[in-house]
Protein: Rhodopsin domain-containing protein
Amino acid sequence: MSSNEDQVVPQFESPIPIENGKQLSMVVVCTLSIVIPSVFVGLRLYARTMTSRSLGMSDYFILIGLVFNIGLQIDCLLMVLHGGFGFHLMDVAQRFGPDTLTYFFKAIMAFCILWNVAICFSKLSVLWLYTTLMPMKKMLYPAAGLGIFIILWNTGNILGQLLICKPFAMNWDQTIPGGKCGSQRDFYFVMGVFNIITDVLILGLPMPFLYSLHLPMMKKLVLIGMFAIGIMTCAISIYRQITLPGLDFRDMTYTGLLATLFSALEPAVAITLACIPYLRPLLGRFATPTTTSNYKITGDKSIGRSSRARAFEELNDADGSGSEVQLQTMDPGFSVEASPPQSNATKPRKNTIVVERKWEVSSSV
Structure:
């Protein structure tokens, strides 16, 4: 008989089971948060091809945001399937082993980085859309300033997450002697507050310009409503803030799931909503013409006029976003003049219409 007793190697459960509704909710939400934004971005790019438009900066920003959003959702799935997310911390250590906890807290660090990048580029995409549709100084300067602030703030959030614990390994190993961490819950709360502020500013930025458009009130309200759908991201952010007081890093694997779920949902919704203004060409593709009117133009052959009858055709004044009309107001320095018909114009023949009009746009700026 050996004098040394055999050492008992602890047996941990593997794989981690899906046992509660919180885990299932995270898996479902993260899966949908990959599929739905990807579909909308794909439709957005397809709409670009329909209008024969090359990709713009707004498209590149949304693509970058989509890539990091997908990485974010995969990170959340891994926290559930390999990090024990949804179980109490002590249960994770006892059932699945300490290595599972290490995996979880490393994934939480990655989550913060991926979230900030995804949020940053989704917001930059919307701001770039504003400057494309409303290219006036009153829009360009505020949008540029807000964009710079968003870049700096999200970069600061990433650095704050990386530096909040000393030494660095303290982020995932709370047993290091002499190690310490700042209040991570307060850090997330402040980060969320400024995120809501930027959401509100982005939401309100185009409203004065949309309201000043010379359009029928119903069309004006439709436009305002289309741009106001971003309020959904504000609602998600606010609800996420409400859940933060219940966040306890001593039991983060259990108390942090709801806040993490809504945090993961936010960039997915933001990317999806940012694509909606670009989808109008897809809607027009399925529309059927309702007019069968004909028109006939006659005139002097030397200036290239035609006397053949043609059906009315819809004007395609699509801008970079695929919208039918570029939303611009005229600065006070601009004037528009229409010249009267020329006196020496060819006398119209019977049963014909001759229209000749010259337009001149001048700027005093």
